C-alpha cells in the first residue's frame, strides 16, 4: 500500500520560507501571485490488510513523528497499490 | 554533580560541554550515547547543540524519539536535572518534555552572534545564583530558534513562571530589535513546571572562559552546583 502525507504549517502560522519563495516568484514577473506556502510531501509504502488499516497506521505515524501538532496539520492520501496510476482517494 | 553529555549522530557541542564540566569546573562527566536508556548515577543530563540526525524532518524531531530521550521523563521524575541548549532545546520541545516548538528564524538567516539575555526566573536550579533582571551575554548559533507556543501555552508559561530568559538589549530591555530570531515575546529559554528541565537556544558552554570572549555561561553551572550545597549557598565567580 502506498500513502502520501502532506504536512503543512497551520493557517495563521507565519511561513517565512513561503514568503521568500513568493518574493522570488514576484521578482520573476509572477505579479498575480497573492499567497504561497511551502509544505512537505512524505511518501510511505507499507504492508496493510486493508486501506482503512493502512490509513490508521499512517495517521499514527503522523501523530507520533511526521507532523508536529503545535505547528503543522497533515492530510493523508492513500494510493491503492493494486491500481497503478489509479485514483487518489 | 555527576553530569552526562548526550551525543547523537550530528551533535556538535558535546565536546564544549564536556570540556567546561571537566576542565573548568572539575566535575565528573561522561558522554552518553543516544541509544542509552540507563541514566543511573547521573544527576544532570545535558542535551548539547548540533544537528542531531541531520535535523531531518524537523530540528530535533528524530532525536526527540530516541532511546535516551525516552528515558528522560523517568530520570526527571526521579529527581534528575536536564539542560538542553540549542538543538537540545529543540529536542526537548519535540519530545513534549517542554511545551511549544522552535521554528525557522523569522529573518530566514542562520544567526551566529552574541546576545544579551535578561533573567526572569531565579527560582530554578539553573539560575538560583543569579539576580532577577540580571543581563547575561551568551552566543547563539542557530537557524531554527524562533520559539512558538499557542496563546494557551503562553498563558500557562507565564502563570507557572516558566519563562527564564528573554532576548534583551545590553540594559535588559526586551525590545524587538534585540530579538534575533522572531521568538514569541523574545523567549530564549524556558523550564518545565517543576523547573528541573531547562531549554534555551543560547550556548552557555561557549561562554565559560575569558579566552572564549565571556564567562556568563558558567553562572548557570555555578547555580547548578550550588543547588547541591545544603545551606543554599553557591560558588561565586
Helices, strands, pairings?
The complex is a heterodimer of chains A (89) and B (237).
Chain A: E1 2-9, H1 16-27, E2 40-45, H2 51-66, E3 72-79
Antiparallel strand pairs in A: 1-2, 1-3
Chain B: E1 3-7, H1 14-24, E2 29-33, E3 44-47, H2 67-70, H3 72-77, E4 81-85, H4 87-94, E5 101-103, E6 111-119, E7 135-142, E8 146-148, H5 151-159, E9 163-168, E10 187-191, E11 197-200, H6 218-226
Parallel strand pairs in B: 1-2, 1-3, 3-4, 4-11
Antiparallel strand pairs in B: 5-8, 6-7, 6-9, 9-10, 10-11
Describe the structure in your own words.
The complex is a heterodimer of chains A (89) and B (237). Chain A has 2 helices and 3 strands. Chain A has helices at 16-27, 51-66; strands spanning 2-9, 40-45, 72-79. In chain A, 13% of the residues are buried. Chain B is α/β, with parallel strands linked by helices and 237 residues long. In chain B, 20% of the residues lie in helices and 24% in strands. Residues 227-237 of chain B have low confidence and may be disordered. At the A-B interface, helix 1 and helix 2 of A face loops of B.
Amino acid at each position: 500500500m502506498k500513502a502520501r502525507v502532506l504536512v503543512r504549517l497551520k493557517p495563521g502560522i507565519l511561513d517565512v520560507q513561503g514568503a521568500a519563495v513568493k518574493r522570488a516568484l514576484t521578482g520573476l514577473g509572477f505579479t498575480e501571485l497573492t499567497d504561497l506556502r511551502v509544505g512537505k510531501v512524505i511518501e510511505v509504502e507499507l504492508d496493510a490488510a486493508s486501506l482503512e488499516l493502512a490509513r490508521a497506521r499512517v495517521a499514527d505515524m503522523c501523530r507520533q513523528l511526521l507532523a508536529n501538532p503545535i505547528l503543522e496539520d497533515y492530510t493523508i492520501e492513500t494510493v491503492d497499490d493494486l491500481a497503478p496510476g489509479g485514483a487518489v482517494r | 554533580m555527576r553530569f552526562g553529555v548526550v551525543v547523537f549522530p550530528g551533535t556538535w557541542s558535546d565536546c564544549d560541554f564536556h570540556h567546561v564540566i571537566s576542565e573548568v569546573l572539575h566535575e565528573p562527566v561522561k558522554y552518553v550515547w543516544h541509544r542509552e536508556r540507563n541514566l543511573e548515577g547521573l544527576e544532570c543530563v545535558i542535551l548539547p547543540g548540533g544537528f542531531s540526525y541531520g535535523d531531518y524532518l524537523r530540528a530535533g524531531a528524530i532525536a526527540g524519539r530516541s532511546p535516551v530521550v525516552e528515558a528522560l521523563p523517568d530520570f526527571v521524575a526521579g529527581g534528575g536535572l536536564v539542560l538542553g541548549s540549542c538543538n537540545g532545546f529543540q529536542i526537548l520541545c519535540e519530545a513534549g518534555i517542554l511545551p511549544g516548538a522552535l521554528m525557522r528564524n523569522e529573518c530566514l538567516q542562520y544567526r551566529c552572534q552574541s546576545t544579551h539575555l535578561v533573567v526572569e526566573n531565579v527560582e530554578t536550579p539553573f539560575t538560583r545564583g543569579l539576580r532577577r533582571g540580571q543581563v547575561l551575554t551568551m552566543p547563539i548559533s542557530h537557524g531554527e530558534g524562533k520559539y512558538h507556543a499557542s496563546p494557551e501555552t503562553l498563558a500557562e508559561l507565564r502563570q507557572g513562571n516558566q519563562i527564564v530568559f528573554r532576548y534583551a538589549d545590553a540594559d535588559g530591555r526586551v525590545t524587538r530589535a534585540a530579538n534575533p530570531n522572531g521568538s514569541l515575546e523574545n523567549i530564549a529559554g524556558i523550564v518545565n513546571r517543576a523547573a528541573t528541565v531547562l531549554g534555551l537556544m543560547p550556548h552557555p558552554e561557549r561562554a565559560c572562559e575569558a579566552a572564549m570572549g565571556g564567562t556568563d555561561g558558567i553562572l548557570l553551572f555555578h547555580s547548578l552546583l550550588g543547588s547541591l550545597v545544603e545551606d543554599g549557598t553557591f560558588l561565586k565567580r
